[in-house]
Amino acid sequence: MSEVHVYGVVPASATPELAEQGHRLIAHRDVAALVSEADRDGLRAASVLRAYWRVLEQAAAVTTVLPVRFGTVMTGDQAVVTEFLEPAHDELAERLKEMAGKVQLTVKGFYEQDALMTGVVERSPTIARLREQVRGLPEAAGYYKRIELGQLVAAEVERERERDAHGILERLRPLALEARLEPPSTPDSAVHAAFLVDGKRVDEFSGAVAALGRELTGRIRLRFLGPLPPYSFSGEDATAGARAWA
Amino acid sequence: MERPRPSGLADVIDIILDKGLVIDAYVRVSLIGIEILTIDARIVIASVDTYLRFAEAVGRLNIAETDDSKGLPELLEGMTEGGSRSKTKGAVEGVKEKLGIGDGDEEERERAKPRARRRRRDEGEE
Q1: What ipTM is given for this predicted complex?
Q2: Which residues of A touch B16 (CB under 8 A)?
């Protein structure tokens, strides 16, 4: 039997709509796994990632989806049932029920570069002094000093990020069912926060993000993404849970 | 809903990676090539490359003058695709935007990517 790429878990009752979208499902009692054949020859990570994102996005438009961690491949349909859907059935069924009608909204913020750097230099006399020294040195001679300067700046940016990320999280938390900070993934990241929001409050939440974005103009540029399947809320103890399932 | 503006892979990678239900390692098969892609986001922040770029960024600031913003280089350009994009857009981009990755204009986006990042990803795809 050929290997399958497991994208997510959906209620088995949603099978007709999903089949209409061309997705393949492996159902077991009232839960089903959304899968595709895993073509491991000629596999390109980027295209697999695109497919994963698209399949879950389409499915989330018609039903509740619990994403399974990206890149999960199992040995075949039989394994999906006996090693995953059957042992984890109760937990999956319960989480699907919990997530019904809820969506993830993600807020990312990026520092405006000039404002961030100017603030860093103004706040730290050490950085300002080192900056002056480095400016006077030829490129090769100043290499280690520049790394030192960069490290100090990075630390200062980290402090700034800590403040801003928590500030933004707390500001939006009252409108969400759950809220979570994700680690920054770029050096100019100010915040990356995921919110689990009642589907009926998406507009209200969007309004709050827009207002916040206006306040932060000139300092932090916000990106607002969603509605998304609950990537950050499918299983906070997923790893521990998985061990229990095995 | 309005037709979404497509976003690059970089925009969704940190939403997806390391998220979702985990199926036990003993019963799944690992997916070749993905691991390299996952490392990418994490090593960026605490790297010599980032330190040097930060140093360059503060070094080039001309703090004494106030009206020189046009003359400044894109300080962090190349460090992040999100950061180098859309300086002219509104305060909040893509409200309720859906990510249409794979919508056909990927080629154009790939070309627009900073060189260092593109190189890393190509390695990741091999």
Answers
A1: 0.82
A2: 49, 52-53, 67, 70, 231
